[in-house]
Amino acid sequence: MWCNLSLPGPARQILTAKPPIMLQTYLKIAWRNALANRSYTFISLSSLALGITLFFFITIWVKRELSYDKGFPSAQQVYRVETDLQMQDGTTSSLPGAGWPVGRVLATDYPEVEAVTYMRNWSPVIKAKDTHFYEDALYADEKFLNVFPYQLAEGNAATALSKPYSLVISTQLKEKYFGATENVVGKTIMISDTVPYTVTGVFQDLSAPSHLKFDMVGSLNTFCAMYPKDCKEEYASGWFDVNMYNYIKLKKGISGDVAQAKIKNLVLDKAKEAVAKTGFKPALKLRPVTEVYLYSNMPTGRGTTGNIKMVQLFFIVAIFILVIACLNFINLTTAKSVERAKEIGIKKVLGSNRKKLILQFLTETGVLCVAATAISVVLMTILLPVFNEFSGEAFTARNLFSAQNCLLMLGIVVLLVPLAGFYPALVLSSFKPISVLKGRFSHAPSGAILRKAMVVTQFVISIAFIMGTLIIWKQMQFMHNQYLGFDKDKILIIDMKKVPWALRNDNSEAFKNTLLGWPGIKNVTACTAAPGRSGWDSQFAWPEGKPKDAQLIVEYIPVDGNYIKTLGLQLKAGRDFIAGSKADSTSAFVINEAAVKLFGWGNADKAIGKKLTTSGKEGTIAGVLKDYHQHGLQQKINPVVLSLASFINIYAVRYDGVTPKQATNILQAAWGKVYKGYPMEYSFMDDDFQRQYAKLEKFQSLFGVAAALSIVIACMGLFGLAIFTAQKRVKEIGVRKVLGASVANIVTLLSNDFLKLVAIAVVIASPLAWWAMSKWLQDFAYRINIAWWMFAVAGLLALFIALSTVIFQAIKAAIANPVKSLRTE
Description:
Oligomer: single chain
Number of helices: 32
Distance between the termini: 22 Å
Strand content: 15-25%
């Protein structure tokens, strides 16, 4: 009788084995099944390994993004003081700083505040060993090391920044400037060639990254020692000079929300005259320091900011990729279940219960998951440099396989085993032994429907990624190719940040004249900012015809008389500056059309001759420029005011008739004559402007990689199902061929079912992708319109990829000898 059938040794041992032996037996069976089904094992392992690799890479990037400013003990007590300026129309301008007097009032009048520190930007040029260096730096007061408790390897944190011309440096700078010297406290570093600063401390790096970017901190008292009058006036009345960063440390147990409610109207209460004069309604806001990087979009100093939406998006992408890989495994495992039906039936007849069978199949899943994880470890080691290139990070193998990350990887395996193995285990363990052993077993219709649903789900995710990638690419192309309102070609930008302020100004005319003496150099301008760089943001403006409380803000850019001509800006009305004109330098402005609109002057012609006061200067409008993009297309064209002034941050040099290489050689020759000994940093203006899109380009690349991997993983599963379908229908194909079906007929038969599933996925994915990408495009002031053809192209591409995936196996089945297939039992 059939109930006397015997099992192979390992299967028989399961019924009587003790748990350790049972597990050993399960592992042997898992290994043998993997070898017996090499193609399915390869597909399952490959898709799982790719899914784990991408998931792990994105997860460690997300972890790093979320770890900013959490590396010191009191991080939960520290807040940045920000200012919201409310306009009459109800709009609000948010600034990352506060007026000068704010910090002192917070320190004296609010018992909830334990400490307040002041910070502002600093751009020191350091002379050492006959070489000039430029370091990321801040000015800060003596409370800085209380609010941000960096550990000092040398020096006293309580006094390190109390005296003027004091300097705290990082351990890297200590090695850079002093070599292996054991103690550098008391040694000097020469700033701007002539000012000696005394090193009073050496700080150790925080274990976690920070939104503050600096390698040295100079005492803020130094600034006040150099400019005592300005400093005194600012601390007394500079309520609206919002160019100082204040960070506060609240006492333990004090809620940030409670403290914010108390300080919100501090400026309104303490500076009634200044508020009445400007008309602005300022409100102070406390932002937890742990949220500055991801949530504020407003850096402090030269620090960078992230984007919580991007972090969330990529984590969702990682989960989707992992889900696709798991669906592959589930689909292939349940599809192959028919081949193991008799094995399961015999085990049940011999007494194996469902619990043991589920344990066996979960063990097999665990083996595959562990193997896939091992493969992903190898892949991550190989692909780490590529990932660093894409993400802009500098992860090392040590970072990658830290104790925390190894636990994370273990957690992924623990999560994957039930996620990928529990449903197949339930399906396989549910087979009826009598039906199976009598040969009446077949897949339930519900199982086929579920497999189709999983295929559709996989391709919905993958096709949505493809559609998103196409829309992102089109938006980036639009931004790169949009006319900006000026001629950015054949312009070189020279950054002057590594030249002392006095030297760059004293030698400005000499440098420009030297350059203009070379053939091929057409124009040169010295200015604070060119398009792609910020001028003086958020400057108050009082135009003629508007009340003093009109609350208008502009971007103010000090330039020289050659600025408009050099950049190729176009005048709408009026005239350009007259180079060398004393009258223009004291009282002339050139504005853009956006400023005319903001000031309510009607049109460009009517604006000529109107009076304007801004940034400490009073004058009249000499010219109006056609609107141009001072910044990237993420932002609307803001009101811009140009004025003649001797503030030089950069030179812009237009060349023609010479090659870019020849032009850079000319720059270097002129630089060597005028600024010898200082490093020259230059870039081409088109590259300089596009640098604003660097984060978006990385986002595009990472999203594209995710889309490519998702479609690869989905197609691997589709390929496995195509193999299974061809094997399952081998006799049907043989009969059809005997009856006259052509190869094309067979290929169409086998491909149609899969293509229908992909077509359904296209229909489902299109509205989802449209909704998601419409949300994403809302962050751009200038953006593309999402067109129907984008979805059509993505859908056709997905159908083509799917057809390419299954057609090989379909052709292979179609050209097989029907005699062999019909003889096969």
